[in-house]
Amino acid sequence: MPEKIALAYSGGLDTTVIIPWLKENYPGSEIIAVCVDVGQGKETGGLIERAKAHGAAAAYVLDVREEFVTDYVYPMVKAGAVYEGKYLLGTSVARPLIAKKLVETALREKASAICHGATGKGNDQIRFELTIKALAPELKIIAPWRVWDLNSRDEELEYLRRRGIDLPMTREQSYSRDRNIWHLSHEGLELEDPANEPNWDHMLQFGVDPSKAPDTPSYITIDFEEGAPVALDGERIPPVALLERLNAVGGANGVGIVDLVENRVVGMKSRGVYETPGGAILMYAHRELEYLTLDKQTTAFKAIVAGKFAELAYSGEWFTPLMEALTAFVDSTQKAVTGSVRLKLYKGNIISAGARSPYSLYDEDIASFTTGGLYSHADAEGFINLFGLPLKVRAMMNARNGRGFAP
Fold first, then answer.
1. What is the pLDDT of residue 366?
2. Do the Cβ atoms of 132 and 102 come closer than 8 Å?
3. Same domain, 125 and 47
4. Residues 151-155, mean pLDDT to the nearest whole number
């Protein structure tokens, strides 16, 4: 019986090459091409026909956009997870879901292996394979980039030409990009030298250069329930549509553009430009609401959790016991993160314009400069005496030992 191989298929150069390569190197195998739609847009058009034309026995396009937003993006927003202070994890958070759907398809089709087109230099090979190992360790993993003798884009194109396979792209077609509903990443060309300024006019697709954004700001209001966004400008909207609308208004105002030299899991640094307009807005708004509703100690500890959450997501450790535990902690903190946040978007900036919540811990009677009934200024003296007692004791000890303060 011929071996079945489930292929993570995008229709791009690498995965187009992989179909004939698998058939040549695994004689008699049946290739099941699987495109997992996490919001690539027009890129998914015609993929089923193209995969079959190039030799796949079967092909699927799986629309998982809503699952991606609710089960992967929203947990990341609730956690406040940002990698190395800048990256909103657009590619990272999509890979575990794509791999999960590959596993589900492979098991349903009774395939014995999963193949992916990630290179041996990147993070994606780790993200795909950790998920496969966590969910279906019995499946064999095939990673052509780690074993074949093709070493460049030119060699891949020549490989296809020799087999009479045409591609809807050319060698000169711009940056290496990854797109989903949360973000769009760009690598290559001038970005390979960190000293170069990005060619914004040639690069940007989700939005505009902030300097070319409108001179009039846009105001929006986002409503959250237990940490998840549910409405925009007073209108309740399903998750996918809400994020699409935020991408549109954010992109128009030049919001959410990040240029980052990051540390890859495999040990090297790489540079990328990320467009995440709707994501940047959601992360900012969610943080503003947490400022209003979380107490001091929870806020401080949650920042530690956010860093670890981001690290795990970036490294592909989504289906791990620690990620499960961190998610449980984050969910417990979100019970009071309900309310509305108003934002001003202006030339690449996101600016707070007010927030309210029925669970707000801000009390005007206590915080106001006007003396209220819930706070006595005289109480501060005793608090400061106790809070500063260790400093006073240390100063007295230094004085006894001749090490006191000398102006």
1. 78
2. yes
3. yes
4. 88
Contact 266, 126 (CB under 8 A): yes
Q: Is the pLDDT confidence value at 166 over 60?
A: yes
Which member of 50, 92, 124, 177 is catalytic?
124
Give the per-residue pLDDT at 367: 73
* Side chain identity at residue 325, one-letter code: A
* Known catalytic membership, residue 14: yes
- Residue 106, domain member (yes or no): yes
pLDDT tens digits along 36-63: 999 999 889 999 999 999 999 999 999 9
Mean pLDDT to the nearest integer, 120-131: 96
Is residue 128 within 8 A of residue 103, CB to CB? The reply is: no
On whether both 145 and 216 belong to a single domain, the answer is no
- Identify the domain containing residue 230 by its residue range: 177-294+337-356
Catalytic one of 95, 177, 179, 271: 95
**154 noted as active-site residue:** no
Tokens coding 170:
């050319």
Q: Are residues 283 and 379 in the same domain?
A: no
202 and 128 in a common domain: no
Single out the catalytic residue among 112, 176, 340, 352.
176
Q: Are residues 145 and 215 in the same domain?
A: no
Instruction: Mark whether 176 is an active-site residue.
Output: yes
The count of structural domains within the chain is 3
Q: Which of 191, 72, 194 is nearest to 127 (CA)?
A: 72
Rounded mean pLDDT, 2-17 = 92
- Is the domain of 30 the same as that of 152? yes
- Within-domain flag for 76: yes
Give a yes or no: residue 317 inside a domain.
no
E strands of 119-215, at which residues? 140-142, 176-179, 184-187
Could you tell me how many residues make up the chain?
A: 407
Half-sphere exposure for 318 (CA within 13 Å, toward CB): 28
Q: Give the pLDDT mean for 199-220.
A: 96
